[in-house]
Amino acid sequence: MKDNGSVPSHPVSSRSVYPRPAQLFPLGVAGKPALLAHRGAPRQGVPENSREAFDECLAGGEAAGLETDLQATRDGYPVISHDPFWHGAKGDVEIAAVTWKELSRHRLLNGEVPLGLEEFLDRYPGIYVNIDFKVSAVVPQALKILEGRGDLGRMALASFSAPRVWKIARRLGPQPGYLPGGLDVARFLLACESGVIFGGKSRREWETNEDSLGGKRESWQKILWELREKQRLGRLRDFGILPRLLFDYHCAFAVPETFRGWPLVTRRFVAGAHAVGCPVYVWTVNDANQYRRLAAWGVDAVYSDIVHTLRHASTK
Question: Which residues are in the GP-PDE domain (predicted)?
Answer without folding.
Answer: 33-314
